[in-house]
Amino acid sequence: MANVALLYDEVYLKHDTGAHPERSVRVKHSYDHLRARPIYGSLTDLKPRPATDDEILLVHERRYFDYLRSIPSDEAGALDPDTMFGPGSLEAAILAAGAVTTAVDNIISGACDRAFCLVRPPGHHALPDRAMGFCIFNNVAIGAAYAARSRGLKRTAIIDFDVHHGNGTQDMFYGDEDVLYCSLHKWPFYPGTGSSDETGRGKGQGKTVNVPLPSGTGQAGYLDALADIVLPAVREHRPAIIFLSAGFDAHEADPIGGMDLNEDSFDELTGAIVETAREVCDGKIVSALEGGYNIEALGASIHAHITALSK
After folding, report:
1. Which is catalytic among the residues 33, 124, 125, 185?
2. Which end of the chain, C or N, has fewer beta carbons within 10 A?
3. In b/e form, how buried is each residue of 60-98, taking b as 16+ CB within 10 angstroms?
4. Are the C-beta atoms of residues 274 and 1 closer than 8 Å to each other?
5. What pLDDT, in 10s, does the model give residues 61-114?
6. Which domains does the chain possess?
7. Using one digit for the tens of pLDDT, what is the confidence trace for 228-261?
8. Is 125 an annotated catalytic residue?
9. Rounded CA gap, 137 and 125, in Å?
10. Using an 8 Å Cβ cutoff, are 180 and 209 in contact?
């Protein structure tokens, strides 16, 4: 059984979004759901550290970071039409990014084999210079860049199975030959990117793999796309570590997604990724929460995901 670390902190609850779909109860309920189940006893609890400025600036522009810091600490509002920002938001966002870099450090040191970062705000829509789609910093992109550029794991891969395309992650690595970005997502759908002909540019040509899926795609369709398109690309790339943008909003009960997966589907998807990780990178995986907006379905899906990571 693999040693899987769980990274969570109540600081994530300080990002107060009110009745917004991306609200604090998502991670609080999911954490409580895990604690009430036997799997929790086998997990390694790791305390995330805040991401450093240098880590955030691996993928984000300084002027954007400086802008966030300039917002008065008692001011609440929105960074874009979908992304709330208030007194605790920057602290939570820095710690969400830091959970992923903490996980990288602990996998490299051998303290754990794999990790799941139960974080918010999510990250994969965040662009180098601005927030977007509930996301402030791009947590997984920061982790992948940190692993590749700061910790010597030159070749990394990101598999994104959130129901939305991770436009921010794609943008950050579109010309990078060392980072493979693969996305399974509903199409057409927000944010409007992620067509199959978006494949990278320059040295990064072929290192972006988009698999747009029609509304209502279920487990069989996802597993076929993963097996036929995504995992062969990962094997060819031979990453030293795999990152997962783990969105669970493709669940059939999710109010946003419109796809037909369930918690068993996430167990199967994760299991297939774990098998490939064993082949190419000694099983090294860092997973971080993205979407998932039905609270009960999210908790059950995360439990299934972590159970599969543990095998």
Report:
1. 125
2. N
3. beeebbeebeebeeeeeeebeebbbbbebbbebbbbbbb
4. no
5. 999 999 999 999 899 999 999 999 999 999 999 999 999 999 999 999 999 999
6. 4-309 (3.40.800.20)
7. 999 999 999 999 999 999 999 999 999 999 999 9
8. yes
9. 9
10. yes
